Amino acid sequence: MTHDFPLFFAKTFAQLDKHNLDRLADIYAADIHFTDPLHDVRGLDAMREYFEQMYANVTHIGFDFHQCDTVREGQALLRWTMTFCHPRLNKGREIKVEGCSCLFFHDQRVSRHIDYYDAGALLYEHIPVLGPIIHWLKGRLA
């Protein structure tokens, strides 16, 4: 069952929305520690608040998992594409961001979740004044 957990996690996570956040307890431990380039969240209650805020601020969000691999017992890597629409980013049009999650789990619950993605592609590139500067900088550094 442990080797099936990353796939169960991906399927459950992809089905989350603002109406079923109680399902977070199906995949996360009470002492979950989640980090990504923009957030550091500790505890299941704080995780639920994080998701409530995320869903309140977007008009659409979805995750497509491309790869779910168990690296070793209790550790998995998942590759994904997040698609979302935010009314104040990219003129409300769809934004796609590629990313990877590193999960540490025990007893079929994730206790540590680390997301890696380009924060510029997620946020900064789509802010009206800052976006062109970020694109210019990326071009200069390429």
3D architecture notes:
With 142 residues, this protein is α+β, with helices and mostly antiparallel strands. The chain has a single domain, classed as Nuclear Transport Factor 2, Chain: A (Roll), CATH 3.10.450.50. Helices cover 32% and strands 41% of the residues. It has a 6-stranded mixed beta sheet. A hairpin with a 2-residue loop joins strand 1 and strand 2. The longest helix has 14 residues. The radius of gyration is 16 Å and the shape is globular.
Summarize the structure.
The protein is α+β, with helices and mostly antiparallel strands and 142 residues long. It contains 5 helices and 6 strands; from the N terminus they run ααββαββββαα. The protein has one domain (2-141): Nuclear Transport Factor 2, Chain: A.
Please supply descriptive tags for the structure shown above.
142 residues, 6-stranded mixed beta sheet, Nuclear Transport Factor 2, Chain: A, globular, alpha+beta
CATH A-level architecture: Roll
Strand content: 35-45%
Name of the level-1 CATH class: Alpha Beta
Q: Work out the helix count.
A: 5
The helix/strand series, from N terminus to C terminus, equals HHEEHEEEEHH
The low-confidence runs, each spanning 5 or more residues with pLDDT under 50, are none
Largest sheet, strands/sense/barrel: 6 strands, mixed
Shape: globular
Q: Please, what is the average pLDDT?
A: 86
What do we call the CATH topology?
Nuclear Transport Factor 2, Chain: A
Quick one: how many beta strands? 6
Structural category:
alpha+beta
Cα-atom radius of gyration? 16 Å
Number of domains: 1
